[in-house]
Design brief:
By secondary structure, the protein is an all-alpha fold. Helices cover 65% and strands 0% of the residues. This is Nuclear cap-binding protein subunit 1.
Length: 797
């Protein structure tokens, strides 16, 4: 809130003369916003006295600033959920002093709730409902009307032909409010609440949970069960009910004002019907609750609550809320996490580390960009140098020990986090503790993890530094030095067919030859695919690509910029060499062969080749799945290239779609204007018709471009999934024939990469589900592969 106010004042430079006239009211509004937003933060006075004082100030300002106060309170209910009970108490005190204001606030909250649901802002809607439920404790809302709202929410579970995720969300909202208000509702409406519980229980028992295995961080159920979020929350609420609704962790400042609040008149919520299902609506995806620690992992100090205690849910929910509110300001976020209320009653550092890793590993995607979690953990280590680094080291050790059963997507994120983290601490780590993995097959997860971490670390440092920090025994895992492999390097290569031409091409490039001159030289390069007496048209000549691209990249090997500049300068030659699909795949093969010791360079050059339309996305997919890249198939950089390629295709389609929408809007406005101005001069009408005609032509062209781009995108996914199916089927048949176990490290990696493609690009893939089902994921497919597709479909059932 305060950030928004700050940016508004910066952007209003031209409005100073207006500001002077209304400066006093604006100053008061700013002061009110500041007072409301900061209540509950560190202060010399108690929270209760601060709340009482603030309620007095707001009550005095209600006659003049009621609408502003309503807006601020509705906004904090939605945007600062970690201070929920502080604000519900404040509203309770205001309601006790001014009944009409309380009624207007409840109405404003219901309006806001309808608006958030209409706009698919489901996370914010959860906070609004939770806020309303806590107002029952503050005697603002009558308990029976809250129960009626919950009953309407749970009625969604009886709807037919709607996605399961819709009912999931409404059940989650009700269950997630009960730690705050369950006791009060059960005391007032026990029969209705029992009926509600019975309906929830029935729904949870008949839920389809095919999707769970796709979303789990670990496949192993030990040492910690990886539970689906609704199952876990239901177990926590049932335990809370069994414990007579006694919980010891929610801050409840309204208890201190009970004598005042219980005298207040209560409001009934207006009847609230959940908005109906709209086909294509995007509901929140289900997720699995991440568990990493239990009470045995935090040996000293307070005991960590059990996984089915409601305190665990409340603590985690509040920590998630703090991160959600402050994630853009790492210093503030770290400070807020460490000053969590009630921190002396729990092992806070363990909870914070578990929640941060839980978000980082969340599937299909982390709530925020990965680098945010790295910077946040670094900031926490700075603020708590005596304790948090030890907990983080313990967590890293645990994650390493459990790599065998960890999801491949999560291993990728762990590699990126750990290498970035190490780079901020001089790459210091107790590497010797992990030396056991050196005797393993290097394709196993642990040695592979170390190799990938060192490769990523080298991007943030340099080769010799990595050699110096890692024990000599790890030499097999240290990546090769980032040097260019030039096949025409010296006299020893003179026997190679393209050697003489490479010398000529190199000299020509150094002498600033034009594209035409280079093409003339390449015309003389013999074609190994063509017999001497073959006079039929010129077939694809791989040697031309080898000679030209190897020589060009060798001369430009000094830096990324040199390479980009070289590709740009000889764009025409490269386009001529890649006229067919064979040429496009071969150019990628040559880039890899030259820079195989520098995966980052391969990735950025492939990216550049796609951007400059020298190769297309399908060619990249075909190359990555080709036999030439089979030995690199499980390497992280291969999958970074594939996902980057899919995202590029996605952005391309979105860009053309946006241009089409803009052209349609423009035409619509033009037609409105034409109707409005009809009856004016004929010349104007003629000009208007010409403009409309041009726009209609532009729309037709863009429509064709959109259809072509979507066809290309669909083809890309067909290529990727077809290659996955071929590779996996070959492996399964080979294992069946040889009576071998199918669960090799390669198989685990491949099947989880298939899941990763589905999860990371689920929104786009859903557009082509019909085609995929008809052509690839048919009933005849091996059940092991088909199961992945069925898990994906279950995510939005």
């Amino acid at each position: 809130m305060s950030r928004r106010r700050h940016s508004e004042s910066e952007n209003d430079g031209g409005q100073e003369h207006k500001r002077r006239r209304t400066s006093e009211p604006i100053e008061i509004e700013d002061r009110l916003e500041s007072l409301i937003c900061r209540v509950g933060e560190k202060s010399t006075s108690s929270l209760e006295s601060n709340l009482e004082g603030l309620a007095g100030v707001l009550e005095a300002d209600l006659p003049n600033y009621k609408n502003k106060i309503l807006r601020i309170l509705c906004a904090v209910a939605r945007l600062l959920p970690e201070k929920l009970s502080v604000y519900t108490t404040l509203v309770g005190l205001l309601n006790a002093r001014n009944y009409n204001f309380g009624g207007e606030f409840v109405e404003a909250m219901i309006r806001q709730l309808k608006e958030t649901l209409k706009n698919n802002l489901y996370n914010e809607a959860v906070y609004l409902v939770r806020f309303l439920s806590d107002l029952v404790n503050c005697h603002v809302i009558a308990a029976p009307s809250m129960v009626a709202m919950f009953e309407n929410f749970i009625s969604v579970t009886q709807e037919e032909d709607v996605p399961q995720v819709r009912a999931d969300w409404y059940v989650y909202v009700v269950l997630s409010c009960l730690p705050w208000v369950g006791k009060e509702l059960y005391e007032k409406k026990d029969v209705e609440m029992d009926r509600l519980f019975s309906q929830i229980d029935g729904f949870l028992k008949r839920r389809v949970k095919t999707h769970v295995s796709m979303l789990q961080v670990w496949t192993a159920e030990k040492p910690h069960l990886q539970e689906e979020y609704l199952d876990c929350l239901w177990a926590q609420i049932q335990k809370l009910k069994k414990d007579r609704w006694q919980e010891r962790h929610i801050l409840r400042p309204y208890i201190a004002f009970d004598s005042v609040l219980c005298e207040a008149l209560q409001h009934n919520l207006p009847p609230f019907t959940p908005p109906g299902h709209i086909p294509g609506a995007q509901y929140p995806m289900p997720h699995v609750v991440f568990r990493m620690f239990d009470y045995t992992d935090a040996p000293e100090g307070p005991v960590m609550p059990g996984s089915h205690s409601v305190e665990r849910f409340v603590i985690e929910e509040n920590l998630h809320c703090i991160i959600k509110t402050h994630w853009k300001e790492r210093k503030t976020c770290a400070a807020q996490l460490l000053s969590y209320p009630g921190k002396n009653k729990i092992p806070l550092n363990y909870h914070i580390v578990e929640v941060i890793f839980g978000e980082l590993f969340q599937l299909p995607a982390a709530p925020h960009i990965d680098v945010m979690y790295t910077t946040l953990l670094i900031e926490l280590c700075k603020l708590q140098p005596g304790s948090l680094p030890q907990v983080l080291a313990q967590a890293t050790e645990m994650l390493f020990m459990r790599l065998d059963s960890m999801n491949t997507s999560c291993i990728d994120r762990l590699i990126n986090w750990f290498s970035h983290h190490l780079s901020n601490f001089q790459f210091r780590w107790s590497w010797d503790d992990w030396s056991d993995c050196l005797t393993m097959d290097l394709e196993k997860p642990k040695p592979k993890f170390i190799k990938e971490v060192l490769e990523k670390s080298m991007r943030l440092s340099y080769h010799q530094r990595i050699v110096d920090i890692v024990p000599a025994s790890f030499s097999a895992l240290i990546p090769a030095e980032n040097i260019f492999v030039y096949k025409y390097a010296d006299e020893s290569s003179s026997s190679l067919p393209g050697y003489p031409a490479s010398i000529t091409v190199g000299d020509a490039i150094k002498n600033r030859a034009t594209n035409e001159e280079i093409l003339a030289i390449l015309k003389e390069v013999p074609n190994p695919n063509q017999e001497d007496d073959d006079d039929e048209g010129e077939s694809f000549n791989p040697l031309k690509v080898d000679v030209f691209l190897q020589t060009l990249l060798h001369l430009a090997a000094k830096s990324f910029s040199h390479s980009f500049s070289a590709l740009g300068k000889f764009h025409e030659v490269l386009k001529a060499l890649t006229e067919n699909d064979e040429g496009k795949v071969h150019i990628l093969k040559v880039v890899y062969e030259a820079w195989k010791n520098h995966p980052q360079m391969v990735a950025v050059l492939v990216d550049k080749l796609i951007r400059t339309q020298i190769v297309d996305c399908a060619a990249v997919a075909n190359w990555l799945f080709s036999q030439d890249m089979a030995h690199e198939f499980t390497r992280l950089f291969v999958w970074e290239i594939l996902h980057s390629t899919i995202r590029k295709m996605d952005k391309h389609v979105q860009k053309i779609q946006q241009e089409l929408e803009e052209a349609k809007d423009k035409l619509e406005k033009q037609q409105h204007k034409h109707k409005r101005d009809s009856g004016d001069e004929e010349d104007m009408e003629k000009n208007s018709e010409d403009e409309e005609g041009q726009l209609e032509e532009q729309i037709d062209r863009l429509q064709e471009k959109v259809e072509s781009a979507q066809s290309e995108q669909k083809n890309l996914f067909l290529v990727i999934f077809q290659r996955f199916i071929m590779l996996l089927t070959e492996h399964l048949v080979r294992c069946e024939t040889g009576s071998a176990d199918i669960s090799t490290p390669w198989y685990k990696n491949c099947i989880e990469r298939l899941q990763q493609v589905f999860l990371m690009h689920h929104v786009t893939i859903q557009q082509y589900m019909g085609t995929l089902e008809n052509l690839l994921f048919t009933a005849e497919l091996d059940p092991h592969i088909l199961a992945v597709y069925q898990q994906f479909c279950a995510l939005q059932l």
